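User: Run a structure prediction on this.
Assistant: Running it now.
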Amino acid sequence: MRMSLLMRGGLLGMLLTGACTLEAPDFTGKSCELAADCPTTHACVAARPGAGRTCELLVPPGVTPEETGPVPTWCGEIQPILAASCVASCHGADTSGSGNRTFRLDRYETVAGVAGAKDKAERIQARAYEQRSMPPSYYEVQLTEEQRTLLDRWARGGAPLCDTPAPDAGL
């Protein structure tokens, strides 16, 4: 018993004196070229004058951005975004830009074993919002921050198809 008290006191003493500290890497201000160079909590942006592109904290950990309004829908907001920035020659009928024929973002549902946007919502959210690796940086059309946020909210909101009026609407 005496030994365990000494061990506990020793550990407590180390903690109180700072002899034992845990460090978490801070990526804020770290140089970056691409979004993938930063953790998902950060974005690779040119925010510091004269510093080039650096990883910057977008939202502190544990804080969820305030979301206002209804969840975006495929019919309302998402399909036009994907049509303009993902479908042209990569993730539609023409896959010459990506070579990937396992999914199509010009469709909502899976057709003949080829996944649609609904089944890829989590991946869309990860690549377009968290990693910011889609569309690729060399691609002519890039997503705005608002579009990336809409894709994130759509995926996290269950990837709804269209607005459906309440059963008693208008009565």
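The helical segments are 2-17, 74-87, 121-130, 145-156.
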